[in-house]
Amino acid sequence: MNLPFFETAVFAAQVLIGLAIVCAFVRLALGPRAQDRVLALDTLYVEAMLLVLTQGMRTGNPYVFESAFVIAVLGFASTAAAAKFLLRGEVIE
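Structure tokens predicted for K+/H+ antiporter subunit F (93 residues):
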């Protein structure tokens, strides 16, 4: 695979991920229920992680992958806490 094709493909992926982020923000703002907003936040952290990973692929910086891992772990923990709050009304018992 040649380099210009790879750079073009990664740039196209970043543009499409950016479009998905905009769609998730719209769902976050207009979501009629709290469950829709939690799902939009979950989608946003996954898309942010993918955007960071594609930027790391473009630059070749290995530290970007560690920051993507941190985004994934914090996003999972926040989604689990929000889901528990929606189910039970409290996060810490």
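The radius of gyration is 16 Å.
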